[in-house]
From TrEMBL:
Transmembrane segments: 5-27, 70-92, 99-123, 135-156, 177-202, 235-256
Name of the featured protein: Carbohydrate ABC transporter permease
Protein source organism: Halalkalibacter suaedae
Cell membrane in keyword set: yes
Pfam families, per database record: BPD_transp_1
Length: 271
């Protein structure tokens, strides 16, 4: 009983530590600049500056940035689910020469730090003429997700081959088997990958910072960075903008809370 009480106490403490930055952000978004960094800290805003949210929306083109982030994120999510599930089916069920070696090389890309590929990828995008366009965010994000392929492959491996054989006897080809047999059976994994991909694409900051220059092309995370000037930063408006920017992620979490928890659990699935 005592050990269980201690464990719950540690978990509650850990949860409070993890949620503290979010609470500080929300409270700071309701303060003026004079209240944010005072010592000792003043946790409860006095007064509540609700106008920070309106000023933040008026100071920057948030509507355009929201649209950019939303459509980029949705394209990446849909394309990732399609390409990763097709690759997972090919690696798991279609026998071809060099399949295992190719899959190992594909997984090896997960061990390469992003910083190593920044300059080569930038040069490729420059050669393609895609700099300062959303293609620099959509194409790499949609086509190269080794983790998604690995996780989905593990699920596909668990599908009985008798189902495929029955489909073949009915005259189904590879794509029909993939579409009618494989996809319906891996929906839990697809939901988890879709949610993780959405959160990663929506919160992506470093890639837009590297490739985008025009304010009309900015995404929400990159737009928030514009509140930081050369010598100072308007922290009140930045915190208000940050709270606005995380609303879609919170909505996704509330709606898909069960799938997120299941997705974290199934990342340890064995094939």
């Amino acid at each position: 009983m005592g050990s269980k009480f201690l464990l719950h106490g540690l978990l509650i403490f850990g949860a409070l530590v993890m949620v503290f930055p979010f609470i500080w952000t929300v409270l700071s978004s309701l303060k003026d600049m004079s209240q944010i960094f005072i010592i000792p800290p003043k946790w409860i805003p006095d007064p509540f500056v609700w106008n920070n949210f309106r000023s933040s929306l008026e100071a920057m083109p948030f509507a355009q940035a929201y649209f950019n982030s939303f459509y980029i994120t949705m394209i990446i999510v849909v394309a990732t689910l399609f390409t990763a599930s097709m690759a997972a089916y090919a690696f798991a069920k279609i026998k071809f020469k060099g399949a295992n070696l190719l899959f190992i090389l594909f997984l090896a890309t997960m061990m390469i730090p992003k910083q190593v590929t920044m300059i080569p990828l930038y040069l490729v995008m420059d050669w393609l003429g895609w700099l300062d366009t959303h293609l620099t965010l959509i194409v790499p994000g949609a086509l190269f997700n080794a983790f998604a392929v690995f996780l989905l492959r593990q699920f596909v491996l668990g599908i009985p081959k008798e189902l495929e054989e029955a489909a073949v006897m009915d005259g189904a080809g590879y794509f029909r088997i993939y579409w009618s047999v494989i996809l319906p059976l891996i929906r839990p994994a697809l939901a988890a990958i879709g949610i993780f991909t959405f959160m990663g694409a929506w919160n992506n900051f470093i890639d837009p910072l590297i490739y985008l220059n025009s304010p009309t092309n900015f995404t929400v995370p990159l737009l928030l960075n514009q509140f930081k000037g050369l010598y100072t930063a308007d922290w009140s408006l930045m915190m208000a903008g940050t709270v606005i920017s995380i609303v879609p992620v919170l909505i996704v979490y509330v709606i898909a809370q069960k799938q997120i928890i299941e997705g974290i659990a199934i990342t340890g699935v064995k094939g």
